[in-house]
Amino acid sequence: DAAKSFATDIAIAKANLAKEQAIASADGKITAEEQKRIQQAQANLNTAIAKATESETKAKSYADVKKQEAINTASTDATNKANNALNSAKAFVNAEITTVNNKVHNVESNIDILKNKIALKVEQSDIDKTKTELINKINVVDNLANNAKDLASAMSLGKMLFSDPTFKNSSNNINTYNNKGNGTVTTSRISKINGCPTDSQYCIEVKTVGSASPNYGGFYFGNMTRANAIFVTKIIAKIPVGLTIGWYSNSTGNNGTSKWLTQVNGTGKWEEYIHLLKCGDAGSFSSTSFFALDGVETPTTSNPIIWHIAYATVFDITENDESVNILKTEMSTAKNKVATIETNLDSITQRISSTESKTRSIETTLGGKASKQEVTEVNNRVATIKASLDSITQRVSSTESKAQTLESNINDKASKQEVVNINGRVTNVETNLNGITNRVSATESRINTLDGRIASAVTIQQFTEYKQSNRDFQLRVAQTTNLHNLVPNGTFAGGLREWICGGEFWSGPYTGYGFSGKVCGAVKNKSTSEKFLTSYKSFKVEKNTTYTLNFHYKVEQNIQSMEVFVMLSNTESGDYGQVIRVMQALGGERSDLTNDIPYSFTFNTGNFEWVWLRFDNNGMKPNTNLDEYCWLYISEVAVYKGNVGAVKYLPKGGETYDTTFKLDGMGYNCKFASGAWNQIGEEGNMWYAPGMKYPYRSLSYHEAVSINTDGSNNYIYRDVQLPARFDYVDPQYIDITASLKVWYKYTGKPFSSENITVSTGRVYRANGHTYAQVACRGCIRDNDTFTTEGLQVVATLHVTA
Question: Is residue 335 over pLDDT 60?
Answer without folding.
Answer: no
